Amino acid sequence: MGQGLNTKVAQVCAYVLGVDVQSVSIKPYYSLISPNVCPTGGSGGSECAVYATKIACEEIMRRLAPLKKENPKASWKELITLAKAQKINLNSSYMFTPSYDGKSYTIYGVTAVEVEVDILTGQHLILRADILEDTGVSLSPEVDIGQIEGAYVMGLGLYTSEELQYEDVTGRLLTNRTWNYKIPGAKDIPIDFRIEMRKNAPN
């Protein structure tokens, strides 16, 4: 998925466990080990997976808390070795349930665009676009900036070049291929593309 789900899960897991992100490995998803997944859209899969990861890791940390208290200077490997010797269960899982764990909410943003238009031909050039997005506390800012860029370009295509045209009598879709349905290309995006996420604004 383009939302960087694996990266975000690894980052949150490392943060909760207090280890380096390089110590976390994400296994490829398949339905034998995780058959019940939530649908995703608008980066929603990341929110669900990260929340479930956070809860599962917090449970492991609760089990390790007595050991950490007894061995405050122990490294992660030393702590896990002690846990294994004492038969502390280091497996944990959690399933995100939208109706219980979270509610839908709206994300706000604002965009200012500087455009140069040839009034004779309609040819236009986007000189600059500035976007301010209220992302709350971003799980992975670089990944989320990519998501914001993608959303902007989708909107750009919708309002400038993409048009669904249908045959009047039969209703057959006429713009059914790239020859006559034009999505934005690399030269259609803003020359100067600036994105900022609100700082210190949890939602």
UniProtKB/TrEMBL annotation:
<dbReference type="Pfam" id="PF20256">
    <property type="entry name" value="MoCoBD_2"/>
</dbReference>
<dbReference type="InterPro" id="IPR016208">
    <property type="entry name" value="Ald_Oxase/xanthine_DH-like"/>
</dbReference>
<protein>
    <recommendedName>
        <fullName>Aldehyde oxidase/xanthine dehydrogenase second molybdopterin binding domain-containing protein</fullName>
    </recommendedName>
</protein>
<dbReference type="GO" id="GO:0005506">
    <property type="term" value="F:iron ion binding"/>
</dbReference>
<dbReference type="GO" id="GO:0016491">
    <property type="term" value="F:oxidoreductase activity"/>
</dbReference>
<dbReference type="InterPro" id="IPR037165">
    <property type="entry name" value="AldOxase/xan_DH_Mopterin-bd_sf"/>
</dbReference>
<keyword id="KW-0500">Molybdenum</keyword>
<dbReference type="InterPro" id="IPR046867">
    <property type="entry name" value="AldOxase/xan_DH_MoCoBD2"/>
</dbReference>
<feature type="domain" description="Aldehyde oxidase/xanthine dehydrogenase second molybdopterin binding">
    <location>
        <begin position="1"/>
        <end position="190"/>
    </location>
</feature>
